[in-house]
Design goal:
The chain is 34% helix and 18% strand. The protein contains 17 helices and 18 strands. It has helices spanning 14-25, 66-71, 104-112, 116-136, 154-165, 171-179, 182-189, 193-204, 243-255, 298-304, 313-320, 348-351, 362-373, 421-438, 442-445, 454-461, 508-519, and strands spanning 3-10, 30-33, 46-49, 52-54, 81-83, 88-91, 97-100, 236-238, 259-261, 266-272, 275-281, 286-294, 328-335, 355-358, 382-386, 401-408, 446-452, 492-494.
Length: 522
């Protein structure tokens, strides 16, 4: 006899778990099917080597909605977020460094060593971003209107109109930040290369784009968004690794009666007379439900699990047009000690609490992109490295450390062919060589390493093309232009980052989807 629930959630990533918890909280019977042995999707923790707990994919948190933390009692269920201060460390080839955090006076002193004008401009720049972000941030947890809007979309459309209206004198600035390239904006505000390059790396994270390309300015807003770290714009580490978030949501789910099944891969979503009726697992097991909500990307949901013959032509074309290109690799390390960067009068373990940026100029970033544009890994890649064990000693043996390196650019294929193990090793060696020019001991302190190319991210986490956002965050795939939670197939919903507000560890996609499902009265 088939198992039966009110709702089946495909994928136990953070969005899927959030959706499950809210549905169960409303009294629905819910089953989560997760393909892997570990929950959290990209926000997971794994003991890659004995004693070393790494967050192989996602590695920091700030954008996760405080309302979800409160409503699902995540802190009571073990979630602990450790703020990072300072937040950014940029070593330079000439031995200087730029250290930025959340103390305005300290930031101005740091920047003034490169440019007094930039030091004076930086507080105004952050104030501008904060004004826009404060107004737009509520839209992350608000359902967008449909495109084209229908009568039922009127309340959502009105809220979005009011949000933009409240920008008042900042409307032009907001539109530019949402649509334009990062470089022209940074050029207007600053003259110093280290300052511009440090900020520009935030604009390209996870994107197959350079700072000079339209659409990259939007991620500059993330610098001042989110309060999960304890205050606006403060990013943090989850104690125990990013999987600590999934553990807390899982505990809430189980308290609410959610059934969670690990190592249960979906073979297909079952459709009968234009309605989703459940799923068939890889082993042939059938689970029935009135509603199916998929937190995996649109390619897997519609092309792998269903087939386009069940979709209206226009919607199928919309799914096919999603840009999944990615050029981001992840390299995780076990280290015997801290890299000995030159940190000046700041203790090394303090300087390395935030993100270490290896990108001395914007031109450096552009040249790194040029390589990938022609199908080659960047010869001099942009590197963002975090060492969460400087803040959280529970994830590494005493005196040793876990480091996580987000590297751009690394295309999905190299000159049209798949990466080989030799390619992975050569790329990791190149990144280590670059780090060693800044921290002379780096090569010698690497105990273990894990290299994940976009293809590895795809096979491990089900991210088509290795795209960490389930589709690039371009304007035509942003807000109302991302896929809707409610699909053309009755009883089938999307609750992952393919929907608004998109990628990032926010939880908003799952929460919003649950609202839509409950509104439809499953």
């Amino acid at each position: 006899m088939a198992q039966r629930y009110d709702c089946i959630i495909i994928g136990g990533g953070h969005n899927g778990l959030v959706a499950a918890a809210y549905l169960a909280k409303a009294g629905k019977s819910v089953c989560v099917c997760e393909r892997r042995h570990v929950l959290g999707g990209c926000a997971s923790t794994e003991e890659l080597w004995p004693g070393f707990k790494a967050s192989p994919a996602a590695y920091v948190i700030s954008l996760f909605l405080p309302s979800i933390i409160k409503e699902l009692k995540l802190r009571e269920n073990g979630l602990s977020i450790l703020p990072r201060s300072p937040s950014s460390f940029t070593p330079l080839p000439d031995g200087r460094r730029l250290l930025l955090g959340h103390d305005k006076a300290s930031n101005q002193r740091e920047i003034s060593t490169f440019s007094q004008a930039d030091a004076e401009a930086y507080p105004r720049y952050e104030a501008m971003l904060t004004r826009v972000a404060t107004t737009l941030e509520p839209m992350l947890s608000a359902l967008p209107p449909g495109v084209p809007p229908r009568l039922r979309d009127a309340p959502a459309a009105w809220r979005w109109i009011q949000s933009f209206k409240s920008l008042d004198g900042d409307l032009h600035t907001a539109v530019e930040l949402l649509t334009a390239a990062a470089s022209p904006i940074l050029d207007r505000w600053f003259e110093s290369d280290p300052v511009k390059a440090t900020l520009a790396t935030d604009a390209i994270i996870g994107a197959f784009a350079s700072p000079s390309m339209p659409g990259t300015a939007y991620v500059l807003l993330h610098h001042v968004m989110g309060e999960a770290g304890g205050a606006r714009g403060v990013w943090g580490y989850v104690q125990g690794g990013m999987g600590g978030l999934a553990d807390a949501i899982e505990t809430s789910c189980r308290q609410l009666g959610v059934t969670i099944q690990r190592e249960q891969a979906i073979e297909r979503i079952n459709i009968s007379n234009g309605r989703a009726t459940g799923v068939t697992l890889h082993d042939g097991t059938v689970i029935e439900a009135r509603t199916v909500a998929s937190s995996v990307d649109a390619h897997l949901t519609f092309e792998r699990f269903i087939g386009f013959d069940h979709l209206p032509e226009q919607f199928a074309e919309r799914v096919k047009s999603i840009d999944y290109r990615s050029a981001s690799a992840k390299i995780n390390f076990a280290l015997s000690e801290l890299p000995n960067f030159e940190s000046g009068d700041v203790p090394l373990d303090v300087a390395l609490r935030g993100t270490t940026h290896i990108a001395p100029t914007v031109e450096y970033i552009e040249r790194a992109y040029d390589d990938a544009k022609y199908g080659r890994p960047s010869h001099s890649p942009v590197i963002e490295m975090t060492i969460p064990s400087t803040v959280d000693p529970t994830i590494a043996p005493p005196g040793q450390h876990v480091a996580s390196m987000f590297v751009q650019y690394a295309p999905y294929e190299i000159d049209g062919r798949a990466w080989t193990e030799a390619d992975r090793d050569a790329y990791a060696d190149r990144c280590i060589d670059i780090l060693t020019t800044y921290a002379p001991n780096f090569r010698d302190i690497v105990l273990q390493r894990q290299v994940m190319t976009p293809a590895d991210l795809e096979s491990t986490y089900g991210l088509t093309g290795g795209n960490i956002f389930q589709g690039a965050m371009h304007l035509h795939q942003f807000g109302p232009f991302r896929l809707p939670h409610r699909t053309p197939i009755r009883g089938l919903y999307l609750c992952g980052a393919a929907t608004h507000p998109g990628g990032g560890v926010m939880g908003a996609c799952g929460r919003n989807a649950a609202q839509v499902i409950l509104r439809d009265g499953i």
